[in-house]
Amino acid sequence: MKEKKNIMKVIGLRKRYPEFFLNNISFHLESGKITGLIGANGMGKSTTIKLLLQIIKADDGEIYFQNRNILENKDISYKRKIGYVGENTDFFSQCRLNDIKKFYQSFYPDWIEDDYKVISNKLGIKSNYKMKDLSKGMRMKFNLCLALSHRPKLLLMDEPTSGLDPLVRNEVLYILKEQVRKYGTSILFSSHIIEDMEKIADYLIFIHQGKIIEQCEAKKILNQGISIDMYLENLIKQKGDKL
Ligand SMILES: Nc1ncnc2c1ncn2[C@@H]1O[C@H](COP(=O)(O)OP(=O)(O)OP(=O)(O)O)[C@@H](O)[C@H]1O
C-alpha cells in the first residue's frame, strides 16, 4: 500500500482572544488531497488559516510544513510554496489587473506565466480591467489565478466560494480539482457551504467553538448516506458537555 505523506502537520496550536479561544488544535493535511475545514460562523476557521500563514502569531503549538517547524525557523521562504486566497478580495482597487499581477509575480521566483495565461483564460479574466470594476466572483477568480500561477505546493483558501453564485462556485471547484490532478497540489479549503465540500473534499476537519471535533475521510460520511451538515449536527450533540 502507498504510504500517505503529509504536507502540513499542526500540533497543539493555541490562540487566545478576549472572547474566543482556539484551543489546542491538531490536524494534518495529506499531500495531493483536498481537505475541507468546516464550521459555522465564528468557530475559528479564519483564525486557524491565518495562524498557518503566520499572519497572526500563535500563543503555543507547532506547525510543520514539509516536515519543518515553521514557527521555530526564521527563514520564511517556505511562504513562496503556499498560495493563499482569503475572504477579502478588495485590494488595489484603482489598479489594473495586469499591474497587480506584475507586482505579485515579483515575489514569486517560481511564477509560471503560461499557467497565468491558461487559468485567466479559463476563468474569463480580463487583465486590462481595474480591480474596482470587477464583480465579487471575478475578484475571487483573479485571486485564485494569482495564487495558482506560482504552482504552490499547498493552497490555503478561506471561504473562497461564500457569496458566489452556484455557476461561479462550480467553475472554481473544477479548477481546484484540475490543479490537484495535474500538479498534485494540496488544498485546505474553509467553508460553511456543505455542498462544495461534498463535491470536492477528500478529507474533512470539523471545527466547533475553537476545537477540532473530528478529522476524517469525506467518503466515510457520504458512504453512510447522510449529509455532512447532519453528521456535524450529530457530532455536536454526541460530544455535548465534553466540548
Ligand atoms: N483580531 C481579533 N481580535 C479579537 N477577536 C477576534 C479577532 N479575530 C477573530 N476574533 C474572534 O474569534 C472568533 C473566531 O473568528 P474566526 O474569524 O476565526 O471565525 P470563522 O470560523 O472564520 O467565522 P466566519 O465563517 O464568520 O468567517 C470570533 O468570535 C471572532 O470575533
TrEMBL record:
Keywords assigned by UniProt, alphabetized: ATP-binding, Nucleotide-binding, Transport
PROSITE patterns: ABC_TRANSPORTER_1, ABC_TRANSPORTER_2
SUPFAM superfamilies noted in UniProt: P-loop containing nucleoside triphosphate hydrolases (SSF52540)
Domain ABC transporter: 2-234
Annotated GO MF terms: ATP binding; ATP hydrolysis activity
SMART domains listed in its UniProt record: AAA (SM00382)
PANTHER family reported for this sequence: ABC TRANSPORTER ATP-BINDING COMPONENT, ABC TRANSPORTER ATP-BINDING PROTEIN ALBC-RELATED
Protein name: Sodium ABC transporter ATP-binding protein
